[in-house]
Amino acid sequence: MKTPFFQRYLLIASIFLVIGIAIIIQMVRIQHSEAAAALLKQADMYGVETRTIYPERGSIFDRQGHLLAGNETVYEVGVDLAQVTDPDTIAATVSSLLGVDYIQARDAAKRPYVEGKTVYAVLADFATSAQVEQLTNLQKDYADQALHTRNGEKAPSLAGLVFSPHLKRSYPEKELASNVVGFYKYLDREGGRGFFGVEEKYNDLLSGTPQRVRIPYDPNKAREIPQIPPGASLILTIDREIQAMTERVLDHALKTTGAVNGTIIIEDPNTGELLAIATTPRMDLNQYWKFGEIFPNPTPFDRTVGTTYEPGSVFKILTMASALDNGAVTPDTNFVDTGTFEIGGAYIHNWDGGAWGPQDMTGCLRHSLNVCLAWTASKLGPDNFYKYIQAFGIGHQTGVDLAGEVSYPIRIPGDGQWILMDLGTNSFGQGIAVTPIEMVMAISAVANNDGKMMGPHVLKAMIDNGRQYNTTPQVVGTPIKAETAKTLTGMLTRSLEEESSDALVPGYRVAGKTGTAEIPGPGGYESNLTNASFAGWGPIDDPRFLVYIWLEKPESSIWGSVVAAPVFSETVKNLVVLMDIPPDNVRQTLHGQ
To answer: What is the model's pLDDT at position 480?
Structure first.
């Protein structure tokens, strides 16, 4: 039974609750009343403005802590009109040192001072610390000189010249990893935002939360701008040294092969972490306004996520993985290559137009036989083939955390556009379009020897309010069994070794597959223009890297085995040093194998 005291307490608490709610309602009503609006407007008449204060934009680092994007202090140069005595000298000085228009600067400095209204004028912005130091020294020198002038003489004066510091986005590595980082339009101080790459994808995190404050127009009366928390900083999976090496290798490859563009992606297939993404063209992010010159429409900013292409024979990795996993074939399955395979009324031929006779499945991969892979896909059947291909994520975006990702849908049985011939051509990467990052994600299920497809990502960790939040690797699918992945890795390793491929790396066993795809044009496929690719990974007993290479329209040779395979070898030779991966025999000895 409740006591009288409890009832009294409850009554008192209820009264206070009602009073508190009434106070809150009244405060909200007052703040949004016409009287409040009138007071704010009246305040503006006395030289007070409402200004949005933007937090410091978060920095971007590579996985080792090297700064890829940060902020540097620059200055707005203006005049306190009440203090100006020599507008001509001010105009001449800022015109000489800052490159501004003399007439415009003089007119701004000559504006009449009106208390509470016209008290300040901007002359220039984004002046460097060195330039402001020069102006400050000149201002002091002129002031000292004025003290020693005779009566009647007029000394030059920079009185009234004031400097307001603010931050500008800075990219100390310039072009390095520019396609990954993207850029921030810092010249637009109020409407600036990130474009492309990480700057766009994580713009909201980097920019933080702006606040609106009321500040007097007169800089001498302005109170200190309140400090607000900066935006979150990002730590990327990209390794600066690996990125720089990869860009050097790619640039050399373009020079020696004559390819018009190229891409190299390096991923840890066990986690999906992207260690390097090198592509062309690239730009100095500090001069982002040149974007239109370097990337004329329709050139994508990042080909790894923004361009689809027919991959050619690297796609055979997925076809063979599907057939092995389903049991349609085994490594020892025999096939007699007659040089032609008919499917859906169309005839499939090999890359050289020849017949290769009896082959097992490893031989089909080693010689990259289109006829054999089309036969393999037919053994698997259309429903199973496309079920596996979709399980590998083909035809869909990967969800990689980079802005501008595109995808191209695949034709499948039952959608009205698919025909049986597609099964044959799709089996060896023709008539199907992918992005390089799509292929990397799909092949990761094979490369990690585990059958698990890892989501590719560039964000390793986020730092917000002094706390670090690490990204958890995501398994986005398990299209094949681990046993299938290990079996196919062994087959692709032997195929490289038995043909003495230019992709081989001394001291390390690696697996991989070349790709050569004709490029479709208005009149059909252009036989003299190709996309040359290579996908490879290793060491095969303990995979640490997956490397994907795409060279567009090489001139020295049309074949991926000639132009792309050596690029893989060169990349991995450097990569094992940077990743501190000992040769197989040393590593196995250390592990007691």
So the answer is: 98
User: What would the 3-class secondary structure string for 142-169 be?
Assistant: HHHHHHCCCCCCCCCCCCCEEEEEEEEE
pLDDT on residue 557: 96
Q: What residue numbers bound the domain in which 147 lies? A: 55-236
Residue 480 tokens, joined: 């094949």
pLDDT at 5: 62
Q: Report pLDDT for 1.
A: 47
Minimal CA–CA distance to 512: which of 585, 439, 579, 408? 439
SS3 category, 563: helix
CATH number of the domain enclosing 549:
3.40.710.10
Whether 7 is covered by a domain: the verdict is no
Nearest Cα neighbor of 233 from 460, 403, 54, 405 is 460
CA distances for 368 relative to 108, 200, 428, 443, angstroms = 72, 40, 9, 17
CB 365 within 8 A of CB 495: yes
Q: Do residues 335 and 277 share a domain? A: yes
Examine the fold and report which residue of 212, 236, 260 is the final residue of a domain before the chain moves on.
Answer: 236
Length of the chain: 593
Write down the pLDDT at residue 590: 79
Report how far apart, in Å, the C-alpha atoms of 558 and of each of 170, 224, 351, 529 are.
Answer: 41, 65, 11, 7
Q: What percent of the chain has pLDDT over 70?
A: 92
Q: Report which DSSP code applies to 393.
A: T
Low pLDDT (below 50) residues in the chain: 1, 45
The type of residue at 276 is: A
pLDDT (0 to 100) of residue 41 = 60
Q: Provide the number of structural domains found in the chain.
A: 2
Q: What's the pLDDT score for residue 190?
A: 76
- In 407-558, DSSP assigns E strands to 453-454, 459-464, 467-470, 475-477, 511-521, 524-538, 545-552
Q: Which of 195, 225, 47, 222 is nearest to 119 (CA)?
A: 47
Measured in degrees and rounded to the nearest 5, phi and psi for residue 435 equal: -95, 155
The C-alpha atoms of residue 136 and residue 157 are separated, in whole angstroms, by 12
Distance CA 190, CA 363 (A): 62
Same domain, 311 and 207: no
